[in-house]
Design brief:
homodimer, alpha/beta, Rossmann fold, 6-phosphogluconate dehydrogenase C-terminal fold, 2 domains, six-stranded parallel sheet, three-stranded mixed sheet, 49% helix, elongated, disordered C terminus
Amino acid sequence: MIFLIKKLVVCGVGLIGGSFALALKKAGVVQEVVGVGRNPASLEIAKSLGIIDRIGGCDAATLQDADLVLLATPVGQMPELMQAIAPHLGPHTVLTDGGSTKSDVAAAVAQYLPAHISRFVPAHPIAGTENSGPTAAKADLYRDCKVILTALPENTSEAMALVRAAWTATGAVTHDMSPDRHDQVFAAVSHLPHLLSFALVHDLAQRENYEEFLRFAASGFRDFTRIAASHPEMWRDICIANRTALLGELERYQAQLTVLQQALKDSDAPCLESIFTKARSVRRAWADGAVSSSAPEKSQGKLV
Amino acid sequence: MIFLIKKLVVCGVGLIGGSFALALKKAGVVQEVVGVGRNPASLEIAKSLGIIDRIGGCDAATLQDADLVLLATPVGQMPELMQAIAPHLGPHTVLTDGGSTKSDVAAAVAQYLPAHISRFVPAHPIAGTENSGPTAAKADLYRDCKVILTALPENTSEAMALVRAAWTATGAVTHDMSPDRHDQVFAAVSHLPHLLSFALVHDLAQRENYEEFLRFAASGFRDFTRIAASHPEMWRDICIANRTALLGELERYQAQLTVLQQALKDSDAPCLESIFTKARSVRRAWADGAVSSSAPEKSQGKLV
């Protein structure tokens, strides 16, 4: 698809929004990028780094004639942002977002942008999050990443095509999923592991002598808890936004732990070995690429 | 301490035992290394690689005049091994081991080697375990690693000194701890994370459509589940050997998950944020070295 975005508005010029702008500029498919955000300092930095061409606001001058608007704030801020832009959007502007949860975004679009729902195609780029702010943005963040598009029933094929073309131009590979399915899958493979990793470190941190414990923590602990160094507010928002699916996953997991607890109580070696063997086999197949995965060998969002 | 081990016997010439032999050879503190094991092929490989000088057996000719014996089998095999060597040990031979749990080793020594308990100083080197067998052995495996010595009340100062000197000669830094304390600490920072990681992958693997889930798993999942690719039999043995401490840790952790579950049910954002913030702060301090740790920046036992 040959296309040109004359005016791109990025709301939230951090890692996700800034990288989107840089990638589209590098691909030569955007003429002008306007940045919108709550933090004037971040916007100035984004401008000085060439991520955006100028600073705009939640007003008609900025939004009325935009070809594409990307909402790239934490998901918790999106309802407010949608309400702020709603009165100023023109009838042709296509919208997408970069939020980590999708059912809540879909619901917010229906509630706050009903007049524009046919042109709002929600998206979730599976990309790193360990650094934040415009200085973390880079043109190749999305290269070979997966981006999940969770189209809404109301979406027009033109809006779908533009959003798909834009994300594809960033170097990402698009996949289609319903918002609910997206949230189920990511509750299992992303949100729950984050919750469990935070829980482990917090459980240790609550002890008076936790430093003695940590003194002997080694590589296994390091890898398991890498994601416990993630952004607390962002993960709070994700957990709340996806709480229904996450609660379902947590309940499954607690049942799994109860099985292991009973096996330990019974010294049931065959049961433990069977669970560990199955887990290792699936983990190894995934890492070896026998299961098509989100580039497990490529470190994105790697936390020390 | 200047010392020379004229005869070292290594029972189990894999990663742990083989690396111990190679390191002491490289340090020039051992004259002869004799390998003992159940797998003749492994012993031949160890000999061809220069890890051991000759192959011995559980007999007087091998053991009677040994200065130091290292038991380097999985902990589940140690009771049987101790029974096999007991009749053939001489009155001056000092012993140590490389097992990942220590209370069970201490108990087995008391039960199966009562005549030699004054000279058996249990040890746990905190070193990688992703590869196994003699081909994985390397002279610098223990360099800058921590080795926990869990001396028994019966140990003589001479035995303590030799075992400490030998592990120090491998390049490791020794730390002293009681067997019970060791098992408590490692239940929390190592055994529980392994159990939780195995549990997450197994929970996914049980679903019919698990490949759809894994297709979208990314770097957070990769890090969290790296240890789920660990050796099932070894971890079965560790979990069983340390089941009391591990059950205590698992119970604490389940209580922590119940707190998170309730916070999700209540959409209690401040509670989630508080837990995540505390966890991140402690995890970052640990990674930054504010808590003296087992070399978190150095990859030991890194699994893909």
